[in-house]
Amino acid sequence: MTIKITPDELKVIAKYIEDISGIFLDESKVYLIETRLGDLVEELGCASYSELHYKAKSDASGSIKKKIIDAITTRETFFFRDTPPFELLQHKILPDLIDKRTCKSSTSLPVTIRIWSAACSTGQEVYSIAIVLKKLLPDFAKFNIRLLGTDISDAIIAQASYGQYNRFEIERGLSKDMLQEYFIPDGNNWKIKDEIRAMATFKKQNLLEPFTEPGKFDIVFCRNVAIYFSPENRVKLFNKIADILEPDGYLVIGSSEFLTGVCPRFEPKKYLKSIYYQLKGTPKPGF
Ligand SMILES: C[S@@+](CC[C@H](N)C(=O)[O-])C[C@H]1O[C@@H](n2cnc3c(N)ncnc32)[C@H](O)[C@@H]1O
Known about the structure:
By secondary structure, the chain is an alpha/beta fold. Helices cover 43% and strands 20% of the residues.
């Protein structure tokens, strides 16, 4: 039998979830909380949501907190989600950046480009970016391209890093040709080829906490995560991203998201069907 959450418990558990993950849940999300946390309440032998909250707070190992994060997060993702951002990457962002970085470089050192997929879920976004890089730059090894994928969930990061997908996941966004070229069969599943896997690194990063990766990024994909945050946490997140973006860097957000009124340091720009963001005052290519 599903244990029901009381209005008082809802306030307490929603505040706890927001504190640990940024995910904002109001009274309208009772059903979501009960569906996603109900099994955990039972698994841990709790008689109520108050007891779950108490156990999570007093668990020094942090394992209940992790389980709550794993249960409450929405992981929906797929390869080449919303297509235009990947066309934007291939036809505008990467060519512009490579041009600029090549002109700027006075040494024979390879051109460096740092890309971050923040909140990458099970890795489809990261490998879609890697496939675009591989298609655009057959001489990939000549460049110093760093591709980082992060997420709040250890379990999800482990899955992303392993790079194995079932038929359902593979059929979402990948053409037959891409499947043949970049994946190998692995039992009933498919695994990303080593050469693509090797292009990326994965690590845990809670976007609410200070960013642990040193240095600046040229391209940040931060898609379909801030929609779950409160307006205050959205402001904090995009300001932090503005801090770690190169002055001529690019930010790509989800197709239903916008930054107007969230972070005035960014201005929207349009390329074909895509909107991307750059810091205000970004010099135009060629200048
Ligand atoms: C809906 S998925 C989006 C995945 C991918 N960016 C895309 O657009 O297809 C949201 C991801 O955000 C992650 N997430 C939620 N809160 C987070 C936080 N505070 N820090 C980092 N990742 C978070 C979840 O674990 C989940 O994998």
